[in-house]
Each structure stands twice: as structure tokens, then as C-alpha cells.
Fold this protein.
Amino acid sequence: FAPQNVVLRGRLLGDRFGTTVGVFIDIGQTPEDVTPPNSDGQHAVLLGASVVIPSGRKLRLTGGANAHLTFSRSVSSSPSVLIDDGDVFEVYLNGLYPLGAVTLGLRAQYVTITDITRTTDGAGEIFPDSDSYQLALIPSVTVHPRGTPIHATLQLGARSGAVQEYADYGIALVGKNVAATRLPIALRLRFEF
């Protein structure tokens, strides 16, 4: 276990639309620190939007998109070398179906990461064909005991390593230049007031 990042975010939610703004402060071990790294060593800004899709009495459908705009990290001061492992863009459709204190969920998402760039003494270079993407499904079960602020979620989707620290990765259907995850598991506790 090693810490990866601290996330600070704010959300504005209406009846149909939502927006999210946040910042990822990277505190993990970078590729220059340890192998294998658990972080890309980059801070990022998060911008997101979501919309509730009318779908019936119990079923709740939401669609949305998130952009994780990363900042380059310095790997050398003489010569000045900056690496940017690419920005992360995510588009998703999420379905939730409540059954009392339990909610069943299924998320379909497409995540893409732009090409890696390196800047040496002001001259930029793009690594060709270093972009990546993944289309995945993430099933989940959430337990929310009535009258408590606790939400416990078990999902077949997790964040892992330097390449996959901004968005959850689930059961991979197709992808390129990213791990083909088959059964990632995460247990999350959330407190909501």
C-alpha cells in the first residue's frame, strides 16, 4: 500500500444537470522513484459534467464526461526535461437500480489518454502512438443503511498504477496501450451529509 493522490473536488447538482471541478494533488511514487510506480507524478485539474436521463420510476440513468488535465512533471533540471503522460478523458453511462437499502449499478465507460510528450530545453517531442483507450463495464453493489451517512460500495472496477490513476477501469471489452483488466475489485466507503 502506498498513497497515490489527494483529491479535492466540488460538485453542483441540480434536478437534471451536474458539474464537477476538482484538483488531483499527486503524492505517489513516480517512475523515477520506484519500479513499478503507483503514480505518474503529475498534478491534474478535473472538469466534469453530467446529465440525468429520464428512465422510469426506479431506474436512474446518468450520462457524463470528465476531463483530467495533467500538468507536466520535471525529470531533470540540466538540461530542463518535462514529461507529460497525457490528459485523460472519460465518457460514461451509469445505471442505478435501488432495492431498499441496496443499490445495483452498472457503468459503461470509454476512457482515452492523449499522447505522451517530452519537452527538453523548450523543444517539444510527441511519442507517436503512445495514446491509449479502454471501453469497459463496471458492475457494483452499494449498501446504504437508512438513517446513516454511510455508503459502502463493492465494484468490479478499480484504479491501479501510474497509467490508471484518474478513472476507474472495469471489465475491459476493448482497448489499446493499457492493461486489459478482467476482474479488478474495489471496496469504497463514502460518508454523505
